[in-house]
Structure prediction request, 202 residues.
Amino acid sequence: MKVIERMLVKAGITPIAGVDEAGRGACAGPLVIAAVILHDPFAPELSLVRDSKEISQTKREEIYELIQSAATSISVIIVPARDIDARGVHAANLDGMRRAVHGLEQTPAYVLTDGYAIEGLGIPNLAVWKGDQVVVSISAASIVAKVTRDRIMREMALQFPGYGFAGHKGYITAEHTRALNAHGVCVEHRRSFANIAALIHK
Prediction:
């Protein structure tokens, strides 16, 4: 799991930042992008760090706190639904990744991302296939982004009761579809997404 990071460290290329997002495919709520520089990606206490989707919510919360203490710098960018609608999810994601990296207190020598290279970053970076499963720094960013977004969605559920945001986190599920049909679209829904646009233009 740590081969890429070990190669970079062995070559004297440090610090390394991992970048990942949460909420790209959701039709409601924000896109959250995290950049993380770990003090030591190979530290034994980080052995539990995995792709956030492979970990239960309770365990993610515990590992999130561990990452907070094990990181030398963390930067989180929150892109609201209206910005995603204005720019498109891919452009908003790339811009958020750039902002997250530049928001780190420590400038990384190299950046590893999950899935997409960061165009125009000005720092060497590499998109790693399934990076949140094979690079510890990206896995850490995945957990930070996921936990941050889940907390936002739980708060959103209190503000907009009836949509079930605390459960499905803004992704389209049968429950979410029933809620949309019953209550219509709220301000946190992404109007540029096909299923939401279809409801608006019924």
Q: What stands out?
A: The two ends are 48 Å apart (CA to CA).
